[in-house]
Design brief:
The structure holds 2 protein chains of 2 kinds. Chain A is built from 4 helices and 13 strands. Chain A is mainly beta. In chain A, strands 6-5-4-3-2-1-13-12-11-10-9-8-7 form a 13-stranded antiparallel beta sheet. The longest helix of chain B is centred in the first third of the chain and has 15 residues. The chains are: A mainly beta, B mainly beta.
Chain lengths: 272, 463
């Protein structure tokens, strides 16, 4: 049985306050949106940056496939950040680094404009949001996204869950429902640690409610001014023997021109 | 009293603390993960990536079955077996920060039926691209050399891909997405400016050579510039995004032929991409252009009458390709397209083609020349066609991909169908097996082709 923290806090604080013969101001619990926005800030640098992602796919505990990507993420034009400012979203340009057969391929994702570029054929193909789910750790999983931009959150309650390292974490359990066409999944179950606003776990569901993936966030490290998860473990809910780890490294703040996120630029992409 | 209240507060606080979560079965799904080497260190600076090269070795062996066509095919007949060993290279160099040099080439050693083991046709070279690109300021480019310019959004037919004629080289697959990987560029000068919301492109490809005759295969190390640069061509393009819609407008001119075209794409929901291309131009029909080209290259006698009657005068003609891709079941992507090529052979033309071929076998070479010309131009020989393609990565196994496609003639129901299995042996080795069939009645477009079926096995090593 889970008791909302707010009610427990109020009860304890009032009683303690009465016991001390006085009154004390009670901190209001954060709203669901505040929690998700804070978790976004903890997961992603809120500036344009570059990172290297190493994706290793395991089947039955055996490493089967390894892909290295260079992800360039540009946050939307900076706006004055106020409590009423809408959440900003990222554009992503992903370059395949390894294995050699895929090296040089690019994926461009700017809201609903998503393109795949093959340097061998010099062909750009527009891909759908669902195609982002192709592959075990698909583009949708490796992209830099602010969930607060694409989902409407509600707090379901407070839970103590175990993280990927089997450590207890006091979390808010949120339900995120897709609110924009750019949302990759229909809804998410999302667990955010209460003290640190770190994302601990997420479950991703399709339109039909089918559980697609389970993700654990771990290996928190100081990156570009905050403590962020540098590894995501993604479990395929359909085939539980399939697990993918996504390790992030080599974070660099980097200004990225808007022109990079045009289809015509893909054949000319060079890391600056 | 105070102590009692404090105790009550403590008890309440203990009571309101979040109860431990249930033991999460999800955690049990995380295996003991072994240490895997991390990524290679990134380059010290961007320029240290240059020169960069993509190299691979490929051996492709083809077995094909022939049939006796209704209209006899002039020699040489298509081969029944061929082995092609290739080294493929794409190299980029940056001698100065604003200057890039690009080379894309494939060298083949070919053995095939009815050809001596070593002859002038054994070594073959396809120089796809060789050009210099100058960038005087960010996102402004000027280029000169042989450049592979490809336009369009559909898979099976691209009306606005105006530089596609005469660029086809030997392939390990008939899949149009594979064909576009290996085709010849065109000598040109090109300028492009890319902005935050779109791009503008201008290009001029000069006519420097007399056109070469049609050939079935590239022979020797001839760069075939006389195939790609036999006429002056001007090209202009503007691309932009408007909300979800991405668009490209093009204008094209060569002597005797002008076109304006448009390509659009937009998503429909989460799993569908709709796209369409259309080009309108003033040009002669396929029959007229084939006849004229044959006479120009002295393949057909000067002043020869067309082998079948038809409209030989230039007129306004439309080409279009419209379709959609749909991703289903998480991994399978289906493309379905309709193609319209107004200048191609009509139903009446095809009836006449077969009737004439049976009644006047001496006209067989000219009749087949029209179809060979269409193939060389990479344009459909029939007006109405459908194209369907299925791409299924990770079918059954993580390393196995299955692709299928079919071109269907909507007039006679004949079809070219191919099924391809691609197996990732390792990070560097790939094995591909493709089986294709030209199916249809003897008096149909595909059913009348002399090659009824083929199997191609290709082994690729990425260096």
């Amino acid at each position: 049985m889970f008791i909302p923290r707010a009610r427990g806090l109020v009860a304890g604080a009032v009683i303690a306050g009465l016991a001390q013969g006085g009154t004390r101001a009670v901190a209001a619990p954060p709203s669901a949106r505040t929690i998700v926005e804070a978790a976004d800030r903890a997961r992603n640098p809120q500036q344009s940056f570059r990172t290297t992602l190493t994706l290793v796919t395991y089947r039955g505990g055996q490493a089967r496939d390894r892909v290295v990507l260079a992800v360039h993420a540009k946050i939307e034009d900076p706006l004055p950040v106020t409590p009423s400012s809408p959440p900003r979203q990222f554009k992503n340009l992903v370059r395949y680094v390894d294995p050699p057969r895929d090296a040089g391929k690019l994926v461009l994702l700017d809201a609903t404009r998503m393109w795949f570029y093959d340097p061998a054929s010099k062909t750009s193909v527009r891909i759908s949001a669902q195609q982002r789910l192709v592959g075990q750790a698909s583009d949708g999983d490796v992209l830099t996204v602010n969930l607060a931009h694409d989902y409407t959150p509600t707090v379901l309650g407070e839970e103590t869950i175990k993280d990927a390292d089997h450590q207890d974490r006091r979390t808010w359990h949120l339900n995120l429902v897709a609110a924009t066409p750019e949302a990759v999944y229909a809804h998410l179950d999302y667990w955010v640690e209460q003290d640190t606003f770190r994302a601990i776990k997420a479950k991703f569901h399709s339109d039909s409610g089918r559980l697609l993936k389970i993700a654990y966030y771990r290996k928190f490290a100081e990156v570009l001014g905050a403590t962020r998860p540098t590894e995501t473990v993604i479990i395929d809910a359909v085939d539980a023997s399939l697990v993918t780890t996504v390790d992030a490294s080599d974070y660099r703040a980097q200004e990225l021109p808007d022109a990079w996120f045009q289809r015509d630029y893909l054949p000319r992409f060079e890391e600056e | 009293m105070t102590l009692a209240l404090m105790a009550l507060a403590l008890l309440t606080a203990a009571d309101v603390a979040a109860a431990p979560g249930s033991e999460d079965g999800d955690l049990a799904l995380i295996p003991e993960l072994p240490n895997v080497p991390g990524p290679s260190p990134p380059p010290a600076s961007p320029t240290s990536r240059f020169p960069q090269a993509r190299l691979y070795l490929e051996d492709a062996f083809t077995l094909a079955a022939r049939r006796e066509p209704l209209v006899p095919l002039p020699p040489p007949l298509p081969y029944r077996w061929q082995n092609r060993l290739s080294i493929d290279a794409q190299v980029e160099g940056l001698p100065r920060p604003s200057l890039k040099l690009v080379l894309s080439d494939r060298f083949d050693v070919v053995a095939q039926e009815d050809v001596a083991l070593w002859s002038h046709s054994t070594p073959r070279n396809e120089l796809r691209e060789a050009y210099a690109a100058w960038q005087p300021r960010p996102r402004l480019y000027f280029e000169a050399g042989r450049i592979n310019v490809r336009n369009g959004v559909a898979l099976g037919f691209n009306p606005i891909d105006v530089f596609r004629p005469r660029t086809l080289v030997g392939q390990a697959s008939l899949d149009p997405s594979v064909l576009s990987r290996n085709r010849l560029g065109t000598l040109m000068v090109r300028g492009q400016a890319i902005g935050d919301r779109g791009a503008i492109t201008l290009a001029w490809a000069p006519g420097l050579f007399q056109p070469s005759p049609l050939t079935r295969d590239a022979i020797g190390v001839d760069p075939r510039l006389d195939a790609t640069n036999a006429t002056n061509r001007l090209f202009a393009s503007v691309s932009a995004n408007l909300s979800d819609v991405s668009g490209q407008a093009v204008a094209y001119h060569e002597p005797g032929r002008s076109k304006a075209g448009l390509a659009l794409t937009r998503p429909l929901g989460q799993s569908v991409i709709a796209y369409a291309e259309v080009a309108l131009g003033h040009e002669a029909s396929l029959l007229a252009r084939a006849l004229d080209f044959g006479q120009q290259t002295k393949t057909l006698p000067a002043g020869a009458a067309p082998p079948i009657p038809g409209d030989l005068s230039p007129a306004w003609r439309t080409d279009a390709a419209a379709g959609a891709s749909w991703t289903v079941a998480r991994t399978l992507t289906v493309n379905l397209e309709y193609h319209f090529h107004q200048g191609a052979l009509t139903a009446t033309d095809w009836d006449r083609w077969f009737d004439t071929g049976r009644a006047e076998p001496a006209l067989g070479p000219q009749l087949w020349y029209v179809r060979a010309y269409a193939a060389d131009q990479l344009e459909p020989a029939s007006q109405h066609n459908a194209f369907v393609r299925l791409a299924w990565p990770d079918i059954g196994r993580d390393e196995l991909e299955l692709d299928c496609f079919a071109f269907v003639n909507l007039r006679d129901g004949s079809a070219l169908t191919q099924v391809t299995a691609i197996y990732q042996v390792s990070d560097r080795w790939t094995f591909t097996l493709a089986a294709s069939i030209n199916a249809g009645s003897a008096q149909s477009e595909r059913g009348s082709l002399p090659q009824v079926a083929s199997v191609i096995g290709a082994l690729v090593l990425y260096l």
